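Weekly structure sync, notes
Attendees: PL (lead), two postdocs, one rotation student
Agenda item 3: pending single-chain targets
PL asked that the sequence for the first pending target be pasted directly into the notes so everyone works from the same version. It is reproduced below exactly as submitted, 286 residues in total.
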Amino acid sequence: LQRITPKKIAQVGGEQVEYADYEEEFGNDGLRAGETTIVECESDEAIGMALAFGVPLRVESSLYQRASVPVAPSSEKGTSTRSKNIIEHLPLWKCTDIGGTFEVEGEAQISDQSNPISIPRTTTSIFDSIFDEKSAPSQLFPNDNPIKSLDEYDELTNEAKAKTLSELSNFSGKLPRPRVLRTSENNPLDELLLPLIDESVRRQYYIREAEQSGDFERAEELRAQRSRRQIAKEKAAEAMESGSNRGLDQWESEAEFLESLRADITQDEGSYSRFLDRDYWYEKDR
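Predicted structure, written out during the meeting:
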């Protein structure tokens, strides 16, 4: 879309002079009059803009050929002339091939028609559910922990992070649009995902981030706040690197035991009532 150039009127020497204001941003920082920008929108919004401005709407030819259906204008009209519903004022079209059916490729759905219209399963359709808003989780604490280590987190692509978020029971809301991911200085997916994953992985991420930015005081502060479970996991990793199988088994067992005590391992230790966790010594002596 190209931003319109507003016309303004000023008094000069007692006369009204009309001029174009190229500095007007209409509330959008950095988007001045006359500039062209790409706008992400839904399909119905694109169709509405094309109808409103009388411009052609371009679609990939392969998609059009495989998803189009024969239609004809209908003589039916809206019953109310006073209605403000735009649907009643738009021309109605009816499918002339009433025997036709649709099927989406990649879905286990068999059509009973001899020549169904095949709609390709596009990238957009695959990730539609990812970008839908999720309802709030119904349980008190999440019961999933898909990311076990910092290495696992580092291996995640943006697509994998989006998929992980969409599958987490403690995530609700909307994911950022692809254009936001491409233009943001800090990855918005990290900002959404990090607060919801294993607290030990999150703290390791923040410690590394602090060290990389030169904030060693913050890094030491984060290390001092490590949970007993995180310390046990790090001891297990050190034992693995040194080849100590005995130490590895000991610290892995300790980390697993500490994890079993926590009501929610995605929250920092002490961030919720300790009475929600099981008692260390009581469980140890059982």
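Discussion points:
- The CA atoms of residues 130 and 166 lie 6 Å apart.
- Confidence is low (pLDDT under 50) at residues 101-133.
Action: rotation student to compare against the earlier draft before next sync.
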